[in-house]
Amino acid sequence: MRLSVMAYSFAGALARGTMKLPQVLDYIASLGVDAVELMDRHVAAAGEETVAAALDRLGLSVSCYDLVAADPVQATAAGRAEAVAALKQGLEFAARLGAPTALVVPGRWKPGVERQAAWDALARDLSELGAHAAARGIALTIEDHSLEAATGCTAADLADLCRAAAPYLGVTFDTGNFVFGGQDPLQAWDALAPRVRHVHVKDWERLTEEEADGRPYRRDLGHRPYRGVVLGAGLVPNAAIIERMAASGYRGYLSVEYEGEGDPREGVRTGVEYLRAELRATTAG
């Protein structure tokens, strides 16, 4: 298995303007990591040529290219077609960067849109996008994202959509997000392993309502709040998941994702150290 870092871990700093994407790439490279996961919105803000030049200068590969700027869950056929066209453009840039995988993150279900019809349309669109990606050497994926997202956050949700959009759609397995759907991530891995093309590794801690103090933390089916923490400090059994992945024969990227508070550089650095230690332990075992 190979190590990567999600540039999304720096989303807050990028939004505030306290870091620019080339600075994020510099920092990731300084950790001795040779692969990064990029998001189309951040690339667009920095400029495609600027990002490509920074990657080349630093010798960074792109582990996965995340497509979030266009949402195919739309009320009209015209809206869906526009989104699919934009996503295809994103895949063209991903191919230029040599990304082996791409992640599509459809938005939430829309008010007034009948869910089954929207789900059927999404499956058709993902099938078309999957074929487009495959022709460019890219494995298209969806992930366990959230309770509100069209892809859902259980193994059954992902498997159903992959079957409907077969044969070119796979899974980005997020170790942390299954908790929101009330699912054991180890069981989710067992159900999805043959479909997994990429992995996000993150951690959460559960809060009391007093600790949450009205802030917009992520919540599970029981409406209990969770806050992102550094890898190894929360409740996600990442060590056991990584061991299970290795036993299953997974040899792709593990991408560090930090959604906690404070300086993202510290959260990412700790995450990289954690994953390196786990990978050494897995190899030794």
Characterization of the model:
This protein is α/β, with parallel strands linked by helices and 285 residues long. Helices cover 45% and strands 19% of the residues. It contains 11 helices and 11 strands. The chain has an 8-stranded parallel beta barrel, surrounded by 6 helices. Helix 2 packs parallel to helix 4 and helix 5 (77-97) packs parallel to helix 6. The longest helix has 21 residues, at 77-97. The chain is globular, with a radius of gyration of 18 Å. The model has no long low-confidence stretch (mean pLDDT 96).
Map the helices and strands.
Layout: E1 2-6, H1 11-16, H2 21-30, E2 35-39, H3 40-46, H4 48-58, E3 61-67, H5 77-97, E4 101-104, H6 115-134, E5 139-143, H7 155-164, E6 169-174, H8 185-192, E7 196-201, E8 203-206, H9 209-212, E9 218-219, E10 225-229, H10 238-248, E11 253-256, H11 264-284
Parallel strand pairs: 1-2, 1-11, 2-3, 3-4, 4-5, 5-6, 6-7, 7-11
Antiparallel strand pairs: 8-10, 9-10
Helix pairs in contact: 2-4, 5-6, 7-8, 8-10
Sheet bearing the most strands, described? 8 strands, parallel, barrel
User: How are strands sequenced across the largest beta sheet?
Assistant: 1-2-3-4-5-6-7-11
Q: How many domains in all?
A: 1
How many E-type strands? 11
> Per CATH, what is the topology?
TIM Barrel
| Amino- and carboxy-terminal Cα gap | 14 Å
SS element count, helices: 11
CATH superfamily placement: Divalent-metal-dependent TIM barrel enzymes
- Structural class by helix and strand composition: alpha/beta
Q: What is the CATH C level class, in words? A: Alpha Beta
Percentage of residues in helical conformation: 40-55%
What is the CATH architecture annotation?
Alpha-Beta Barrel
| Tertiary shape | globular
Radius of gyration: 18 Å
**Whole-number mean pLDDT:** 96
> Order of SSEs, N→C?
EHHEHHEHEHEHEHEEHEEHEH
- Proportion of residues in extended strands: 15-25%
Which regions are unreliable across 5 or more consecutive residues at pLDDT < 50? Answer: none
